[in-house]
Amino acid sequence: NAGVTQTPKFRVLKTGQSMTLLCAQDMNHEYMYWYRQDPGMGLRLIHYSVGEGTTAKGEVPDGYNVSRLKKQNFLLGLESAAPSQTSVYFCASIGRGRVEQFFGPGTRLTVL
Amino acid sequence: AQTVTQSQPEMSVQEAETVTLSCTYDTSENNYYLFWYKQPPSRQMILVIRQEAYKQQNATENRFSVNFQKAAKSFSLKISDSQLGDTAMYFCAFMNAGGTSYGKLTFGQGTILTVHP
User: Residue A34 and residue B38: Cα distance in Å, rounded?
Assistant: First the structure.
């Protein structure tokens, strides 16, 4: 089992560019989440999904879009990157009725 | 909405000593889970310990234990016999046990713990 993987691990963008972060899990988990981590603020929820084909907004959704076309994948898109989106992004998943959430290794994104 | 507050941005301790990290939270829910996560320089989020709100007994995992005070909404982490490998950022987190908020974690701001030799 690879657990939760994230692609890419690092990325540098220029303002206005777009990109997609891929999260994949091989644990057949129903729920998946995207968080961002900024200094002094802990992790904050961007978007989440409770099942294939469903997505919902979290605490800080502006500037991001997501899709969950397959149960094992959860994509986070930035259509027009801004310097305020410079952050470390974590994907996580949890199985229905379970308690422990499994995290990916994170993606460090810098927007210049 | 839930909030989680960690009031200690940084803590330090000598190797083999004991240190306590503080966490308070606010919620109107009665059934929930509380967690402590460790984030070493590798950035990986590692679950240290968890506590179910319906359990009165404090959780313990080897050198790690919690002091869960439900009425006071307090959830502190005690690390005994501190080791150099305990040096990391520690996050306190809250999760509802059910409803539409199930699975969503609310994190505190984090506490950087440094263990000195």
Answer: 18
- Closest Cα of chain A to B8: distance in Å? 11
Under an 8 Å CB criterion, which residues of A touch B? 31, 33, 35, 40-45, 48, 50, 58, 88, 90, 92, 94, 99-101, 103, 105-106, 108
pLDDT band at A111 (very low <50, low <70, confident <90, very high): very high
**pLDDT single digits (tens) B56-103:** 899 999 999 999 999 999 999 999 999 999 999 999 999 998 877 788
Mean pLDDT of chain B: 95
Are β-strands A42-51 and A54-57 bridged in parallel, bridged antiparallel, or unpaired? antiparallel
Query: Distance between CA B27 and CA B2 in Å, rounded?
Result: 5
For residue A112, give how far its alpha carbon lies from the nearest alpha carbon of chain B (Å): 22
